Amino acid sequence: MKTSLITFLTFLFVHLSAQDAASILDKIDANMSSKNRVFESSMTILGKRGSRTIASKSYSEGTNRSFTEYLSPASEKGTKMLKLDKQLWIYSPSTDRTIQISGHMLRQSVMGSDLSYEDMMDDRKLTEVYDAVVTGEEMLGDRKSIVLTLTAKVSDAAYHTQKMWVDAVRFVPLKQELFAKSGKLLKQMEMKDVIQVQGRWFPTTIIYKDMLKQGDGTEFKMTKISFDQKIPEHIFSKASLKQ
Amino acid sequence: MIKFLIKGLLRDKSRSRLPIIVVSLGVMLTVFMHAYITGFMGDTFEMNAKFSTGHVKVMTRAYAENLSQLPIDLALTESGELLTNLRINYPEMEWTQRIQFGGLIDAPDSTGETRSQGPAIGLGIDLLSGNGNESERLNLSESLVQGRLPAKAGEAMLSDDFAKKLNVIPGDDVTLIGSTMNGSMSMYNFIVSGTVRFGVEIMDRGSIIADIEDIRIALDMEDASGEILGFEKSGFYENEKAETMSAIFNSNTSEGDDEYSPMMKSLSQQGNMGQYVQMSELWSAYISLIFIFAMSLVLWNAGLLGGLRRYGEVGIRLAIGEEKGHIYRSMILESFFIGLAGSVLGTTIGLFFAWLVQTYGIDISGMMKGASMMMPSTIRARITTPDFYIGFIPGVLSTVFGTMLSGIGIYRRQTATLFKELEA
Amino acid sequence: MKLALKLAYRNLMGAGLRTWLNVIVLSFSFVIIIWLKGVMTGWDHQAKTDMTNWEIGGGQYWQSNYDPYDPFTITDSHAPIPDELKKQEETGEIVPMLLLQGTIFPEGRMMPVTIRGVSPTQSFLHLPASKLDTGDGTISAIIGAQMAKHSHLKEGDYVTLRWRDANGTFDATDVLISSVFSTNVPSVDLGQIYIPLSTLQEFALLPDEATIITLKNAEESATDYPGWVYKSKKDLTRQVDEMIKTKSAGQTVIYAILLLLAMLAIFDTQVLSIFRRQKEIGTYVALGYTKQQVVGLFTVEGSMHALLAALLSAAYGMPFLAWQAKVGWTMPIDASEFGMAIAQTLYPVYSFGLVVSTVLIITITTAIVSYLPSRKIAKMNPTDALRGKLQ
Fold first, then answer.
1. What CA–CA distances, in Å, run from C362 to A104, C25, C30, C368?
2. Which of C59, C70, C79, C224 is the most exposed place for a label (fewest CB within 10 A)?
3. Nearest CB neighbour to C332, from listed B41, B52, B305
4. Which of residues C245 and A84 earns the better pLDDT score?
5. Which pairing describes strands A173-179 and B227-232: parallel, antiparallel, or unpaired?
6. What is the 3 state secondary structure string of A37-67?
7. What are A161-192's pLDDT values in tens digits?
8. Least confident piece of the model among A15-24, A67-76, B82-91, C303-312
9. Nearest CB to C269 within list B279, B294, B305
10. pTM, two decimal places
11. Under DSSP, is residue C181 helix (H, G, I), strand (E, B) or coil?
């Protein structure tokens, strides 16, 4: 009798916290996802031989379509990347070629950063990929944060589990740890410089780090961001790569 | 006395001609053999040297650590200055820069979109500057299957099997997708000038060879190169020299705590080559020793025969009152001259043949029909310092020794018996 | 003929040291040629044996997408082991291996590797696969000595291994290097890390699948399994054959020089014999020998050097060659660059045919060289010869 009560209570608690967690994820998604967004960003790759910064402007719509144009440095300027569903094309102005990046290439790092193309492309909503439970509360810097543990519910998630620190007030992720199935920590993301844009809270700086590898990681900074813009349809076509 | 003996030798051809021919033939074989063995044994190193290790190789410390991964992010920067310094400080070597890299080759369809794609191992070499002989070093002309070597910037060669797989022919465009020294993705267009086959599967499956300047632009490696290879101008690896050179270079130039500072490694210091160099030296010494020993026996025999030929003459000389010891000494002295003349002649001819085989090689491609290994289709001799004196050991010593032995008979035999030989 | 042989033997023995010098040199030719050829044959055997033992067994089935020179193909190169072959796995007749692309991070450096799943109970490959069976749940891995050198790993070290399963989900774990093996076959060493097959199948979400199936014994005729390609031992060892071919071609010159050397001695001896033994020649003719018979006599005498040399070679050569076959010969060559199996020490292998053909070649060459100067006899004036007058 006692046991079943404990079981019931545990179930209730888990259920409640799962529900909590699910609603937290929804709130995060509400902050982070939008019909579309346009942003300019600079990515700083902290290499052993000095760091470099790559600036780009991106348009994205939903989770399936995105278009990025690199603005600087000179060697990358004019390079464009188009993602439609599961396909990725890259256009380089110096060669005037549109190259499809497929299969194995998707696992390569983007511009030498700690992100792979796949990392960039896998932007399904968290609620689509993960089941979440609240596993604690913690102060992260001066922000009170809720700690979520996310477990993949689909088989093709790149990371089996994630641990996510979510700002308890603003509902933006502040830190994420990505784990392998075995539980080994693979990557870590830290979000900073949370600002309010068009009524949403949004972290504008993300520091990625591959935890297995030596190195200081990659810093991704959004310098301009706007949501729900009118993006002309032709942006998301292969023709726009060559323009 | 010496003058008299030499005159005798010159005038009596029967005393000098055949012995000198035999000695010089023997010496010639010894010299040629030694040069050939040296070349034959060194053959594999030279292949390794040409395609990968150089006689010495300069790279960054970090690059040396991760050599197997083609780590262009660890390449030498300001390599132009380094190259100039190397050329000034070591003028006896030929220095050349190379970039080895990994990437993807993509062939476009008519609209410029991806038609076929494949992973490639790339090699950027000095093809167009006009002051390198990399194409001879890598035997590119002979390995050509279709088309020609790159003749201007923007041209590249693909391995033949790779070109077939991508379905491209000379004249077609391909795009190299690689990662730059910083790790950025880069793309660069090449016109396929020709296709090559080396006969080594790993290279024939997917490789691209282009001028280093093109690769520098393609991979954003301005004034950088993965490695600088040094080759002896003679074309032959000299272990001690290469090791000394590396030691001096490293103590002067390389800073232990900076993993990007350049360091030099001799061929023997790269991978397992060291022990093979040692073994090769040991075994060519053994084989040469056996040959010199065998040759000594042959010339000893020739010396014996030479002595026997002249028993009649010895008889007369004894008959007219010449002292036995005097005859013996004069014969030994004569045989010394014969040995010397034969050795000089033999060494000259031997060196000439060795030089021919060193320069032109023995073409074994006929025996290699159907073979597809990256093996030299010609075998070359290699002339080293010992070749200039090694022939004298059997040439002079054995001839003299043979004469000494046969000459003992002069003491043993009675004058009368010898005189009888004269009648014969 | 018997008389000729007897005469030749007596004459040779009478010449003493001169004969023996020639014979010694000729015997060198015998021994060295047989030895060098034996080394080549031994090399061929060794390389193939090593490849058989370490890698290819009696032949392999490759999953049809598998291309060892294109690491990108590995991701798609897996298929369930055909049922017929599965039965053979139980009897130890085959070793299935699953290959997966992965990354190891020794000291925080990234190194791409091929992860090979192999059963710890496999019986015929020389890989120390039994070391993979830790029994305590630790995942252990074995690597080759070259790989250990490149990655700075040693026995007892832990290293992080990362891979992606069939769905693309990252997974990583620390594995214990339980054994470092040393092999002459570079392709099973460089860039390879071995873990238990069942573990890898589980990690990769590819139960019962494999990339390469190695057979213990050669197949008489390859069975066709859809999705698998049969690679016979001959296909897989082609490069060895070609390497041996080149090296043998290069050695031919050494044989030639060695023979020339011996022939120089024989030739010189023959010339002197004919020069000094004119009276004898004259006597033979006077006794009713035809000139051709005398030429034959001298040729037999010269050729007999080869016979004596063969006997001498047998006397010291057999122990030497046998000793070599036992202790081996260390090869001064680095073929690992070519991705081929070459042992440091080669054990020469001599065949009966090799010995017979070498003896024949040397004897025939000696006979020809003995005959050439003897032809002069035929031009001699018998009376002058009898008088010993120089001609």
1. 61, 12, 8, 10
2. C224
3. B41
4. A84
5. unpaired
6. EEEEEEEEEEECCEEEEEEEEEEEECCCEEE
7. 999 999 888 888 899 999 988 888 988 999 98
8. A15-24
9. B305
10. 0.77
11. strand
Task: Count CA atoms within 13 Å of residue C201 on its CB side.
Answer: 18
Determine contact: A152 vs chain C, CB below 8 A. yes
Pick from A99, A238, A242 the residue to mutate for testing the B interface (most B CBs within 10 Å): A99
Q: C190 touching B, CB under 8 A?
A: yes
Q: Give the model confidence (pLDDT) of C32-60 as tens digits.
A: 888 888 877 887 888 788 888 888 888 88
pLDDT digits (tens, 9 = 90+) for B196-225: 987 666 677 788 999 999 999 888 888 888
Q: What CATH topology corresponds to A2-33+123-225?
A: outer membrane lipoprotein receptor (LolB), chain A (2.50.20)
At B191, the pLDDT band (50, 70, 90 cuts) reads very high
Chain A's closest residue to C75, CA to CA, is A104
CB-closest option in C103, C168, C172 to A158: C168
Query: Which two structure tokens, joined as six digits, stand for C58?
Result: 């009696």
3-state secondary structure of A74: coil
Q: How far apart are CA A96 and CA A119, in angstroms?
A: 26
Q: What ipTM is given for this predicted complex?
A: 0.77
CB A126 within 8 A of CB A150: yes
DSSP letters, B15-46, are HHHHHHHHHHHHHHHHHHHHHHHHHHHHHHHH
Cross-strand pairs, A54: A43
Q: Which region among B311-325, C72-86, C118-132, C149-163 has the lowest average model confidence (pLDDT)?
A: B311-325
Residue showing tokens 């060196």: B351
Q: Among B164, B161, B134, which Cα is nearest to B149's?
A: B134
- CB of B184 within 8 Å of a chain A CB? The answer is yes
CB < 8 Å from A in window 98-117 of C: 103, 105, 107-110
Extents of the domains making up chain C: 2-53+239-387, 59-217
- pLDDT single digits (tens) B10-49: 666 666 777 788 888 888 888 888 888 888 777 767 777 8
Residue with tokens 């040439």: B395
